[in-house]
Amino acid sequence: MRTAADWKEYLGESLAQAMLALKDNRQRTLMSIIGVAVGIAAVMSVGIVSQGGRQYIFSELESFGLKTLWVYRDRDQKNSLDLAREGSGITNEDYAALLTGGCCSTVARFSAVVYPMDWQASIKLGSLQVRANVEGVDTEYLNINNDQVSQGRPFSTEDIKRRQAVVLIGESVRKSLFNNHPLPVGKTLRIGETQFTVIGLLKEKRRDFLTSMGATQEFDVNNRVLIPYTLFQQMLGIQEIQTLQAEVLDQKKINPGIAEIQDFLSKQHRGRYKYRADSMLEWTQTANRIVYGITFIGVLAASVALFVGGIGIMNIMSTAVIERTREIGIRMAIGAKRKDILWQFLIEAALISLIGGLLGLLLGAGVLVILARWTGFPLQADAVLILLALLVAVGVGLASGFYPARRAAGMNPVDALRYE
Question: DSSP secondary structure string, 19-47?
Answer without folding.
Answer: HHHHHHTHHHHHHHHHHHHHHHHHHHHHH
